[in-house]
């Protein structure tokens, strides 16, 4: 089938910043796109051919939206999978396939999938309700500290909490959840795996998330990861094992822990373009968004190597600032070599809200890392 | 002034493929855009915030369009400059400035500008009407062969003809024109110069247009040009001289001839993103479209170096094909390493119509050039 300048229709569920970056690629190839999002102000509203306002979790909205598209993809996992299953049964190509999406969408199911398939992951217990955790602690089944994760609807750090005492449980919603053993990790890594509808597979280089030494928050995504070749090899092997078991079509971003003794554990996965792959826009031969489009259209996958080293810094709202956003000192970072800011277009900032990202590329990784730190220390996302 | 996620408005005259590629950058930075084009089917209609259908040559259309924008730029030179002058006098920042645009818009004026400023260019004669040329030939003022160029409204090879005999003059429109001495050139080069509103200047590497040995048509744009360093230095010097005399804001693409004895002559210039800079999307630290936006917004200019070698191939409609377009073998070129097609979104092809371009990048120039040839020999733009 011809996708370029033809009658082919691609549907995207979710109209946020990931969708917006996907739309650059569909525009490059003149692919007709239809996007649905709950917000009439979604970043994708312009740049797609046809925008539909609707709830991603509503069966009828999703089903009606998807009926006339040829291929349907997502930019967020929290969508109505029942509607997708019906569309799939009616011949719409849904990528990621609903089988994969069902496994991933629920974190308890996802963890069980890893253990069922002998994929290394941190030990965990599943609870139907958060309120069941206290019993488990009192009868010795669970020890502090552990990581509480909501089974559903977590996104960007929402729905995750480190629990060190009974009091930490007080504010948590009483929902299906898991309690996961805290991993004493040396680094967090990620591997983006691309798999097209014909089963062709390619992996991007292993990236590394560098944490702020005090705040325990990811500060930099670094490609390639500064790890031993043997560790990188192991990380890619684990990512490929997840990929082949889960049978996704499109991208699969596999987040991993490298433990103190160089074991690789799967943290979680996302079946779509991912924050850990944003560096690829400037650094890779084929960026992750183009690759996702290639994969779901059954086109040959592009070269995943990097042209240059890349470091990504998330732009989040500064503490103490809520209101109309201002990007303070953005001119100063534009003076630095190899620096590209991406502004997601949210008009209002609030503390820690993800407002954009900045990519820094250079032939020399050490130089890119140094400039990234200057970027981080220079730009501030504040309110007027 | 803050441009990012603010009330700032950028106007673009012309909604074709160059405008479309500019819009990727404005979207990346969440800059509000308003675009005018004569066609309701213009590629920019989606992806801009506000589309206006109107004639670029009509005073009222251009003036009305530009009144409420902060900065106004163009993607094509053939616009109503009187309207731009009025807008400029009323405080709209028009980039390129109308003084520069008036010089460039008329090829006779442009050529006179070069001779007035001691900028090397091929000898020429200006005629108020094509019909005056015959007299000049009969009285010995002009010899065959020469290049006839319409003074106004030429674009993409339109309005240019090599004249070898009186008969060749028959089909030409009777308009203001120039007759230019044919240059016996070794190669055609181009230098893209960026100049921002504060007067900061950067040049991209010299690129080379490689011609088909028989068809005498540009086949490849190659960056960097495979020329001696001394020739590249001279080309950049000449381009910078044009830039400083013409006082543009934004990009200035300077097309040059390298003569058989390594002299550099200016062919013509364009005060906007240009076909000779398309390779920069994949190959450069800062692509030409982002650079144009930086320049007209008075932001610091980005690094113009290349990450990798780049070769660009224009995708034009195959001979003998008119109608609904099909990109034959596009899957095959997507299998090649470092190959990125750009499809402009024209639904109808006709012989030699510019339908898109393909960029090939590689660390190794010889490899990129070889793959470019494979691309050229593989993909065909045909009709259904």
TrEMBL record, chains A, B:
PROSITE patterns: ATP_GRASP. Residues 111-297 form the ATP-grasp domain. Keywords: ATP-binding, Decarboxylase, Ligase, Lyase, Nucleotide-binding, Purine biosynthesis. Pathway: Purine metabolism; IMP biosynthesis via de novo pathway; 5-amino-1-(5-phospho-D-ribosyl)imidazole-4-carboxylate from 5-amino-1-(5-phospho-D-ribosyl)imidazole (N5-CAIR route): step 1/2. GO terms for cellular component: cytosol. It comes from the Bacteria. It is an enzyme of class 6 (ligase). Catalyzes the ATP-dependent conversion of 5-aminoimidazole ribonucleotide (AIR) and HCO(3)(-) to N5-carboxyaminoimidazole ribonucleotide (N5-CAIR). Catalyzes the ATP-dependent conversion of 5-aminoimidazole ribonucleotide (AIR) and HCO(3)- to N5-carboxyaminoimidazole ribonucleotide (N5-CAIR). Belongs to the PurK/PurT family. This is N5-carboxyaminoimidazole ribonucleotide synthase. It comes from Flagellimonas aquimarina.
């Amino acid at each position: 089938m011809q996708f370029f300048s033809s009658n082919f229709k691609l549907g995207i569920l979710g109209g946020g910043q990931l969708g917006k970056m996907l739309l650059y690629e569909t525009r490059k190839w003149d692919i007709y796109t239809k996007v649905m999002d709950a917000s009439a102000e979604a970043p994708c509203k312009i740049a797609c051919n046809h925008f539909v306002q609707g709830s991603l979790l509503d069966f009828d909205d999703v089903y009606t939206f998807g009926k006339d598209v040829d291929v349907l993809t997502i930019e967020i996992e929290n969508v109505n999978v029942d509607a997708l299953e019906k569309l799939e049964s009616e011949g719409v190509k849904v990528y990621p396939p609903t089988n994969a999406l069902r496994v991933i969408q629920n974190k308890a199911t996802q963890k069980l999938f890893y253990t069922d398939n002998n994929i290394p992951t941190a030990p965990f217990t599943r609870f139907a309700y958060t309120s069941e955790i206290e019993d488990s602690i009192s009868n010795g089944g669970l020890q502090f500290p552990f990581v509480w994760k909501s089974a559903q609807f977590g996104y960007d750090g929402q729905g995750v909490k480190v629990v060190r005492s009974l009091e930490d449980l007080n504010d948590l919603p009483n929902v299906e959840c898991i309690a996961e053993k805290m991993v004493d990790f040396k680094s967090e890594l990620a591997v983006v795996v691309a798999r097209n509808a014909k089963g062709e597979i390619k992996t991007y280089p292993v990236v590394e998330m560098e944490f702020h030494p005090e705040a325990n928050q990811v500060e930099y995504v670094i490609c390639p990861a500064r790890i031993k070749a043997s560790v990188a090899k192991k990380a890619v092997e684990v990512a490929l094992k997840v990929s082949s078991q889960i049978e996704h079509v499109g991208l699969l971003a596999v987040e991993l822990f490298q433990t103190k003794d160089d074991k690789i554990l799967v943290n979680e996965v996302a079946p779509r373009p991912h924050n850990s792959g944003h560096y690829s826009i400037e650094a890779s031969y084929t960026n992750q968004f183009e690759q996702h489009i290639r994969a779901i259209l059954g086109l040959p996958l592009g070269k995943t190597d990097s042209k240059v080293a890349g470091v990504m810094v998330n732009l989040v709202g500064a503490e103490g600032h809520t209101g109309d956003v201002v990007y303070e000192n953005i001119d100063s970072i534009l003076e630095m070599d190899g620096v590209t800011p991406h502004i997601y277009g949210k008009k209002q900032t609030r503390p820690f809200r993800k407002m954009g990202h900045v990519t820094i590329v250079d032939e020399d990784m050490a130089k890119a890392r140094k400039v990234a730190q200057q970027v981080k220390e220079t730009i501030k996302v504040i309110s007027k």
